[in-house]
């Protein structure tokens, strides 16, 4: 065992190929080397070291990628006519308000999460916003923010020294 050097090794880490004798040594190994134990499917293998097992692994990886792409293409709400019509209407409303609205392609997670809407009665957009403060690694998601709300009003709960939550502001 490469961890305790006492017992005969029975297991091999798929990630870094270190030998271990027991579950306790496996856990120690993962903690000491910050190893997650998951084999890197895209790791480089030289031609001299390439085996039938590597070929099978690559083939299975490509099958998984194909299955994932196929599942994304079959996602029912992404390609439905109702979704396309709503998006088309939203783009038209934005164009009439002199807003350059751009959307991500089908299959992107952020496009699925986006909840921006247009209220025809009020003639107002309600935006899905993601506030990112890179200096402190903080992200906040706001849904249903009306388009007549100013940037100062949107940011007030996060950066205003008087009106903001002290914990959020300190972060």
From TrEMBL:
Swiss-Prot/TrEMBL keywords: Isopeptide bond, Metal-binding, Phosphoprotein, Ribosome biogenesis, Ubl conjugation, Zinc, Zinc-finger
InterPro entries found in the cross-reference section: BCD1 (IPR051639), BCD1_alpha/beta (IPR057721), Znf_HIT (IPR007529)
GO cellular component: nucleus; pre-snoRNP complex
Positions of the HIT-type domain: 1-35
Domain of life of the organism encoding this protein: Eukaryota
A biological process term (GO) from this entry: maturation of LSU-rRNA from tricistronic rRNA transcript (SSU-rRNA, 5.8S rRNA, LSU-rRNA)
Pfam families per record: BCD1, zf-HIT
Molecular function GO labels: zinc ion binding
CDD domains (UniProt xref): zf-HIT_BCD1 (cd23023)
Family assignment from sequence similarity: Belongs to the BCD1 family.
Functional summary from the UniProt entry: Required for box C/D snoRNAs accumulation involved in snoRNA processing, snoRNA transport to the nucleolus and ribosome biogenesis.
UniProt xrefs under PANTHER family: BOX C_D SNORNA PROTEIN 1, BOX C_D SNORNA PROTEIN 1-RELATED
Subunit-structure text: Interacts with FBL, SNU13, NOP58, NUFIP1, RUVBL1, RUVBL2 and TAF9. Interacts (via HIT-type zinc finger) with the RUVBL1/RUVBL2 complex in the presence of ADP.
Name listed for the protein in its UniProt record: Box C/D snoRNA protein 1
Organism field: Anhinga rufa (African darter)
């Amino acid at each position: 065992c490469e961890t305790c050097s006492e017992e005969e090794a029975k297991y091999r880490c798929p990630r870094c190929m270190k030998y271990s004798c027991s579950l306790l040594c496996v856990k120690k190994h993962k903690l000491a080397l910050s190893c997650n134990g998951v084999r890197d499917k895209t790791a480089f293998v030289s031609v001299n070291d390439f085996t039938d097992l590597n070929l099978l692994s690559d083939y299975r990886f490509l099958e998984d990628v194909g299955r994932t792409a196929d599942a994304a293409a079959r996602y029912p709400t992404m390609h439905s006519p109702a979704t396309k019509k709503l998006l088309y209407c939203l783009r038209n409303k934005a164009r009439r308000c002199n807003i350059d609205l751009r959307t991500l392609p089908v299959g992107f997670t952020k496009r699925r999460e986006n909840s921006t809407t247009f209220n025809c009665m009020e003639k107002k957009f309600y935006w899905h916003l993601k506030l990112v403060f890179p200096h402190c690694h903080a992200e906040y998601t706001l849904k249903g923010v009306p388009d007549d709300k100013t940037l100062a009003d949107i940011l007030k709960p996060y950066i205003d020294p008087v009106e903001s939550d002290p914990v959020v502001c300190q972060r």
